[in-house]
Structure formats: C-alpha cells, structure tokens
Amino acid sequence: MFGLMMEMPLSLTGIMHHGERSHARQTIVSVTSTNARHRYTYADCFRRVRRLARVLDRLGTTTDARIATLAWNDYRHLELYYAISCSGRVCHTVNPRLFAEQIAYIINHAEDEWVFVDPQFVAALEPIGERCSKVRGYVVMTDAEHMPVTTLQNVHCYETLLAAEADDYAWPDLDERTASGLCYTSGTTGNPKGVLYSHRSSVIMAYAAALPDACALSAIDGILPIVPMFHVNAWGLPFAGVMVGAKLVFPGPKLGDPATLADLITEEGVTISAGVPTVCLPLLAHTLATQRSLQPLNRLVIGGSACPLSMMEEFRDRHQVRVIHAWGMTEMSPLGTINSQTAATVGLTGAALAEQMCSQGRALPGVELKITDEENRELAWDGKNAGALKVRGLWVCKDYYRPEGGGGARDDEGWFATGDVASIDANGFIRITDRAKDVIKSGGEWISSIDLENTAVGHPAVAEAAVIGVHHPKWQERPLLVVVRTSEAAITKDALLSWFDGKVAKWWIPDDVVFVETLPHTATGKLSKLELRKQFIDYQFPTVHDVT
Ligand code: ADP
Predict the structure, then answer these.
(1) CA of 335 to the centre of ligand 1 (A)
(2) Of 482, 493, 484, 379, which Cα lies nearest the Cα of 433?
(3) Cα of 208 to ligand 1 centre, how many Å?
(4) Is there an atom of ligand 1 within 6 Å of 82 CB?
C-alpha cells in the first residue's frame, strides 16, 4: 500500500520559490571586481534569475544544455546556479585554477554550449577558445562599461543581456532526477571525472547540511562561503542558505584575502563560514598579526583535508569559534561526515577531547559508511582497525558522467570506494588516516601521514607540513617530513624531530626533515602529494634510521 501524501518533486526550483516568498527581504552581499560591496535582496536576486532564464532561452541553449561557469563566489554566480538548474539545464562549474589543458578537456567532455565567465578569467580561456568546438559563445559576467577586449568569438555582456529581458519566466515542472549540476574531480590521477548532481540529491543534501548536528543553519545566520562555488557547489551552502533564508555574504575575487574576509565577517554579521584548512590558516594568522576579533563568527566548517588540532584550538580559544570538522568528496556532493557532539562526547577534556576533535565525525543521516580489509571483509567499528572507507547514500555518485572506458563508480554491492583509509569507533566517529595512495608502509605497518602533518603544524615554527613515504632499504618505506617554516622562525631538524616525542608512536617519527620555501598545491588548495613525490623521487635518507 502506498501512502497518500502529495508527491511533489524535490527540486531546486522549490528552494528558490521558498527563498523568494518567505525571505524576500533577506540580504545578499557580494564583493566583485568592480564593487567592494554589492548588496541586494533575495527578491531582487530571483527577479534577475527569471530574466537570466529568459537569456538562456534567447541564446538558443537546448533544454538540457550544459552551461559552464568560470567564476568567483558572488551574486551573479548565484543567479546562474538557479537560472541554469531551475530551467532544466546543467550548471557546470569549472575550476578556473586548473591548467588550460584541463579546462579545455572538461569543457569538451561536458560539451558545454555556453560559457559564463568572470572578466578575470577571460584571458585564461583565449588560448583554448578554438579547441572548445561545441561552445557557441561566451557571456562575460560584468556590465557594458567593464567589458574586456578579447579574442574569444561571439562574446556577450551579462548585464546587457539581462537588461533586455522581462521579469517573468514559466519555470518547467522538473522530474526530481533531472541533472542540476556538474563538477569534475581534480583528476590527480588521470583525467578529471564528471560528477552529475540531480535536483533530488542537491535538495536532500541541503536539508541534511542545515540540521543542528551538521551546520545548524538558520534564518538569523550570516553565511560566508569561502569554499569556492566552482568546487562542489560551495559545499551546498548556496542551496541550504537560501532554503533557511540566511544572509549570504560572498567574497568574490577576494576569497584568498584574509583582511577582506575578516572585514566581511565583522561588518556583515557573518556567523558561519566554510573552507579548506589552507584558506582558514591565513585568516587565523591575520587576526593574530592585527589583533582583531572575528565577532560574531561562531562556527567554521573546515574540510577538504584534515584540519590540524592546533588550528581548531586557536579558533576556539582566541575567537570562541567552533570548528566543525567535516569530511567528504566531490562524489558525495560533498558532505559525508561532520563532527558534532553526542552524549558520549560531551564533557571530554584533555587528550580525550583532542582525540575527539581530530575525528572527521559521524555520517550525516542519508549516508552509510563501512570499512573493509584487503579481502573486502567488513571491519569492526572499534576505533582501531583502519581499512578502505566505502560509502553509499542519498547524495552519493552512482556513476561518473560519460566515463572514459566505461565502468561504474560503484562495486557489485552498490558501494562507492572513496580511496580513503579510515577507522570508525563504536560511536560512529571516523578518523581518516590517509588517502590509500598516501599511506606510508613501514615494515608492513601503516603510518598515517595526516597524523604526522597535524603534529608538525602544531609546532609554532611550522607554517605548513607534508609527509611522504620514501623508499628505505630496510623498512620498505619511511616518512620524510617536508616543512615550510614561519617567516621568522629558526628551528633545526633535530629540534623539530624531538617535538614528535611522546606525541606519536616512536617508530612513526619521520627519518628526516627537509625545509622548503613552498609546498605544491592542487587547484583546490590541497597539498599535492603526487607533485611532492615527484620532487623527492631521487631523495635518499642520510642515515639508515633504526626504528624499533
Ligand atoms: P579531489 O578528489 O578533486 O581532490 P575532493 O574535494 O573530492 O577533491 O577531495 C576529496 C578527498 O579529500 C577525500 O577523499 C579525502 O581524501 C580528502 N578529505 C576531505 N575532507 C577531509 C578531512 N576532513 N580530513 C581528511 N581528508 C579529507
């Protein structure tokens, strides 16, 4: 017997209508390349979204066209999110920091019909314009006065196109399985792979992200997504934020400028923000150097790579900001787990609290987890066994978009192998040890590069640290610590190595330290271990260390 409840499709159109009707006067603030504080309301935004949908029709885009965006976090990008997806088309967010070759690859692979581009990224597209044969034209996200001169063909001005359209639009009734967005993984191995989100998956994840034990979003929040809108839909905040009717604050091209971020937080009433550790660290350093407060910020979602304990403690102790440590991936839209309290963890202190804070948390409702050994046998949730982490759930990728060479994303039992190694404790808290390909195998035992890196950055003289496994004649592999020092710090190898005493098992302590000026990063701001391993391919340990 079926229930007798209405079966309205889950669609971003529903979120848009709700945002417009119930939160019409809420504010959206954006930094853009020509305006330090653009400001308008949800009502203004969605009026323009209707005009933009008309523009998409007028440009002759097909009904399920993929439309690319190369843009920072701002109100025009938000308008595109809704106009493209709610008109039934697919919003393909392209990471402008990728190499030109990769951008050309993914635009061609997605067969994007039009590209909407911020003025700053026009030059990056010029050398590849001719190769993107399916692209019919470009729309530069600016007004007539700031249109750049370009060699690209068939180029239009965003504001001019919008000004020519009426305010109304007949939104189509969409099946909830309709594709809404497309985002390619960074492709650290092989070509990037396309993850095709649906209206249904995006809406359900927005509900889950807003839950009290997730990001606890509400209409009285000010949300500052530092995580780029070109990376997994800024972790779903542009959907969840509109759904709850929060004030949205977008940093535009100033996303990497801690002074602007701090100004936005204090002047615009930002209560929650989100980003990867590499962007949150400069924000912390800036507040320290300038002795400024981050009031009224009280939550900061950090994920994308492991958040060092020292960073979480500083945000808590210096700014009364709770770091919400989260884990996920492009294939998971991206939220998989979030660290929030349970009855079992409330009141923890000292080492137990530190241990708990380093966990990436528990699965969001809607996501299932398991860990398996090398024979695919499920491992117990005892907080000790580490194994391959597998997931399935309501917003997890089923298959990649037109995968090269075919092949699905799931195993025979329907699970998606994340490529991460993790343990899970009896309360369901996970601890990511490593990416499978980054694990260091010493004498047959695993060493967690993440734990070593986190311990290293806890030292005041260490600005950034990476640990890789290097071939060792006796132990197969041993950890090598590569460190960027804080500007004024003078620290020796030995002093740094003794910092690990008592903090990690003795046999985990790296065999050597190399000081460098910078570490390589991926286009999403993560450490590129692949690149680092290439740099140290000929490295040999100076002495054969005796690990017992
Ligand atoms: P890409 O795969 O394109 O680099 P993703 O954002 O999809 O980008 O990266 C997902 C990966 O990032 C995860 O599989 C995991 O290895 C790592 N990751 C994400 N969040 C965390 C976290 N909180 N702690 C440790 N690793 C993380």
Answers:
(1) 10
(2) 379
(3) 19
(4) no
Helix 309-319 vs helix 449-457: angle between axes, to the nearest 10 degrees? Answer: 40
- Give the whole-angstrom CA distance, residue 24 versus residue 374: 53
How many A from CA of 434 to the centre of ligand 1?
Answer: 10
User: Which residues of the chain fall below pLDDT 50?
Assistant: 548
Tokens of 300: 């900061």
Is 171 assigned a catalytic role?
A: no
Ligand 1 contacts CB of residue 303 (under 6 A): yes
Q: 385: CA distance to ligand 1 center in Å? A: 20
Directed axis angle between helix 75-86 and helix 237-244, to 10°?
A: 90
Q: Hey, which of 229, 420, 423, 453 would you mutate to test ligand 1's pocket, going by the most ligand atoms within 8 Å of its Cβ?
A: 420
pLDDT for residue 405: 77
Give the DSSP letter string of 309-339: HHHHHHHHHHH-PEEEEEEE-GGGSSEEEE-
By alpha-carbon position, which residue is closest to atom 12 of ligand 1? 304
Strand positions, DSSP E, 22-94: 27-30, 38-41, 66-70, 90-93
Query: Distance between CA 102 and CA 199 in Å, rounded?
Result: 27
Tell me how far the alpha carbon of residue 342 lies from the centroid of ligand 1, in angstroms.
Answer: 24
Q: Is 361 in the pocket of ligand 1 (CB under 6 A)?
A: no
Contact 159, 143 (CB under 8 A): yes
Ligand 1, residues 191, 279, 327: which to mutate, most atoms within 8 A of Cβ? Answer: 327
Catalytic annotation on 331? yes
Tell me what pLDDT residue 174 has: 98
Query: Which string of DSSP letters, residue by residue, matches 133-188?
Result: TT--EEEESS-GGGPPP-S-SSEEEHHHHHHTS-S---PPP--TTSEEEEEE---S
Any idea which residue has 């391959």 for tokens? 388
The confidence score (pLDDT) of residue 436 equals 85
Which amino acid, residue 501? D
In three-state secondary structure terms, 293 is: coil
Q: Evaluate whether 264 touches 247 at the Cβ level (below 8 Å).
A: no
Place of tokens 């119930």: 22
- The ligand 1 atom at the shortest distance from the C-alpha of residue 325 is 23
Which residue lies with its CA nearest to atom 6 of ligand 1? 329
Q: What is the pLDDT of residue 546?
A: 54
Torsion angles phi and psi, residue 477, rounded to 5: -140, 150
Is the CB of 327 within 6 Å of ligand 1?
yes
What pLDDT sits at residue 409? 84
Give buried/exposed letters for 518-532 (b at 16+ CB in 10 A, else e). Answer: ebbbbbbbbbbbeeb
* Domains of the chain, CATH where assigned: 14-424 (3.40.50.12780), 438-535 (3.30.300.30)
Predicted pLDDT at 544:
54
